[in-house]
Design goal:
Helices cover about 45% and strands about 10% of the residues. The longest helix is centred in the middle third of the chain and has 26 residues. Helix 2 packs across helix 4 and helix 5 packs across helix 7. By secondary structure, the protein is α+β, with helices and mostly antiparallel strands.
Length: about 220
């Protein structure tokens, strides 16, 4: 999980938005700023489509060096290269849509999405209480890559309709999200299965500050 905020990326301009929820996958490449393991950085790099294509085509390049007498024939086989790219993208990295229906039970998926809403609103309530926000609407945006056969990559951000903007989170707020958002029975992998089932990869939990009771604010502060 990568918590996206102006404090966690170098290229903050990539977070500028005119509406919420702000989509990230397929639109911008984020550069992590601090505190992220190397495997997460590499997983984010793997989202770059061109790099994946080059990886698929690497065996063709190697073959041209190993068998120079056949280099011209290999280079003139673009159809085979396209087929290789499509096969890897649709069958090796992703699950075809016709096979997604059996990934998770419908009732279990509904329970998972309900739990995401409950956890998301609890997190937003605590953030609002800490910041003493009395008006406006906050969004907890959870966006995932659709690549199923490798480690899930999840971007989580708090976005505000005031601005609109991606909210700068404190380290305490980041730690709270890491601690409370995912965990059995709703893990990142389980959410990815739900998203694959529905072919929806952005989940938006909203909270209107006017609907947060004083009791909920006190409970969030004390918690």
């Amino acid at each position: 999980m990568f918590i996206v905020s102006p404090a966690t990326v170098w290229n903050r301009n990539a977070l500028e938005t005119r509406q919420v929820p702000r989509r990230i996958f397929g639109r911008v490449m984020l550069l992590p700023r601090r505190g992220f393991p190397l495997r997460l950085v590499w997983r984010m790099v793997f989202e770059t489509q061109m790099l994946r294509f080059l990886g698929v085509l690497a065996p063709f390049v190697a073959a041209m060096f190993l068998w120079p007498q056949s280099a011209l024939a290999i280079a003139q086989a673009p159809l085979l290269m396209i087929v290789a790219i499509l096969y890897v993208e649709t069958n090796v990295l992703r699950i075809p849509r016709e096979r997604r229906a059996k990934m998770i039970d419908r009732a279990e998926a509904d329970r998972g999405l309900d739990l995401l809403q409950v956890r998301g609103r609890a997190i937003l309530t605590r953030i609002a209480a800490r910041r003493q926000l009395a008006s406006g609407v906050l969004h907890l945006v959870v966006e995932q890559s659709d690549m199923a056969y490798i480690t899930p990559l999840t971007f989580v951000s708090v976005q505000s309709e005031a601005g609109p903007e991606v909210v700068r989170l404190s380290r305490e707020e980041e730690a709270m999200i890491r601690r409370d958002l995912f965990g059995a029975p709703l893990t990142e992998r389980r959410l990815l299965r739900i998203n694959l089932l529905e072919n929806v990869f952005l989940r938006d939990v909203t909270l209107d500050m006017r609907g947060v009771s004083a009791h909920a604010r006190l409970a969030a502060l004390s918690g």
